[in-house]
Amino acid sequence: MGSSDRNGAIQLRGVTRRFGDVVAVRDLDLDVAEREFLVLLGPSGCGKSTALRMIAGLDLPDEGTIEIDGEDVTDVVARDRDVAMVFQSYALYPHMTVRRNIEFPLRNRKVPKAERDEAVAEASRILALDQLLDRRPAQLSGGQRQRVALARAIVRRPTVFLMDEPLSNLDAKLRVQTRAELIDLQRRLETTVVYVTHDQVEAMTMGHRIAVMVDGVLQQVGPPGDVYDRPANVFVAGFIGNPPMNLLDARVASTGDGGGTSVEIEGERVEVGSRLAAAAARTSNGDLVVGIRPEHLRIDPSGPLAATVTVVESLGHERHVVAATSAGQSVIVRVGVEDPSPADGETIRVAWESGDVHLFDKGSGERLDP
Ligand SMILES: Nc1ncnc2c1ncn2[C@@H]1O[C@H](COP(=O)(O)OP(=O)(O)OP(=O)(O)O)[C@@H](O)[C@H]1O
Ligand SMILES: [Mg+2]
Q1: Nearest residue (CA) to ligand 1, atom 27
Q2: Strand spans (E) along the chain
Q3: What is the pTM of this model?
């Protein structure tokens, strides 16, 4: 196990898992490259844990196949797969000390004491648990317990490392720190990591690639920058980015004089340029969603869209101006702290560059602009 001829590449084909009427994971095709850090991202209940548990062998698909290192492991039980999993709930043994918990998988495999001690020392140093080795889980904070669970997985040196929201119980500061440590750890151990989270900041910062899931269906897989810059559909667009992308209902309007297509938002014709005009023409029934990120909107008296400010949120390093259009659509504009801030209730106009606009088909939700 963990021998060097294994590389930890994972391949899922047509994987489906049902619980009664619920399709937790639907027809999932996913390739994870060797030594890749892949993040499975999506809202609560979208099937992330179920997908991970099937890769671990803790749950079996109803349909489809799973390969690890080119070997079909679809029906191989967890114990016989070279994978380690860190759970959302840490599942520590309450009657064992931290040390015993961490070395448990090694004892199980009859690893000699000297080797065990070394592995525990290294893992506890990496996760800052050195001072806690003699305590029991009940005497630890949630964050400390979570680090014990990570340490227990690390000592196994698996070729595939599966993590299910391993940082969810850490406070903000420790989370940032442990995030960096996990990235470093993955590089050093040269293992493949599949990391489940609903936190898009974790996904953006940790993943070589992100796989976004909604309702059991994989929506998009790609490097964080690609997913951010070119979300494949309205859902991904609204999920990645904080504050989220502004998504405004719009219509295709014909110019009438044979000059092609233009776009209307709440009755206002907006200049979109030829790239978007061509894309808008591909809509199925004329209904569009125009997507513009808050950092790409600016307050501009000559802008095409009016909105009334609901609240201005100050985050210290930037401000979010939250406003509503006359049709009640929400708009968020990100402004610098040095820029003048509008007052609550003030009507502003917003502008943007057409190069920053994302266009989606309202009916299918699919991205229209290439
Ligand atoms: N053992 C089970 N029995 C019945 N339904 C289940 C079971 N496990 C999961 N489900 C259902 O399958 C769907 C996916 O669940 P899953 O735990 O994979 O979601 P998740 O993306 O990990 O969510 P979260 O972010 O909340 O952990 C949900 O609708 C859930 O209720
Ligand atoms: Mg889960």
Answers
A1: 44
A2: 10-19, 22-32, 37-41, 63-68, 71-72, 83-86, 160-164, 192-197, 209-214, 217-222, 246-254, 261-265, 268-270, 287-292, 298-299, 305-314, 318-325, 330-336, 347-351, 358-361
A3: 0.89
